[in-house]
Design a protein that fits this description.
Arc Repressor Mutant, subunit A, 3 strands, single chain, three-stranded mixed β-sheet, elongated, 4 helices, alpha+beta
Length: 108
């Protein structure tokens, strides 16, 4: 069963508003499983696809990062497909950049 999307309005610039998707962990897990195995996918593109899928203008990057950290701890989905091991954020994942590289290499 699919989660009900949470979309909040937020200000963007001086006079504009934006529909921001606050994704559930299940939504992020499903997006990770859909990412191509053995290849690093662009996390911004994953957020964009989620936003479009649920009728929002954007997807909350902070919420996605929080979910990725938790997913890396419990191993419920292939987070290594979207976390660039050369970026500082990779150090926040369980096992760090080395684990991400190992997991990507193992999928090839």
């Amino acid at each position: 069963m699919e989660d009900v999307p949470v979309i909040k309005m937020r200000r963007k610039g001086r006079n504009l508003e934006q529909r921001m998707l606050i994704p559930s962990e299940r939504m992020v897990v499903d997006a990770l499983r859909a990412a191509q195995a053995g290849r690093l996918s662009d996390l911004a593109e994953v957020r964009r696809v989620l936003a479009v899928k649920y009728g929002a203008d954007a997807c909350c990057p902070v919420t996605v990062q929080q979910h990725l950290i938790r997913i890396s701890q419990d191993g419920s989905a292939p987070f290594w497909r979207v976390v660039d091991p050369d970026r500082p954020f990779a150090r926040r994942m369980t096992g760090g950049p080395d684990r991400i590289r190992e997991k990507l290499a193992a999928e090839c």
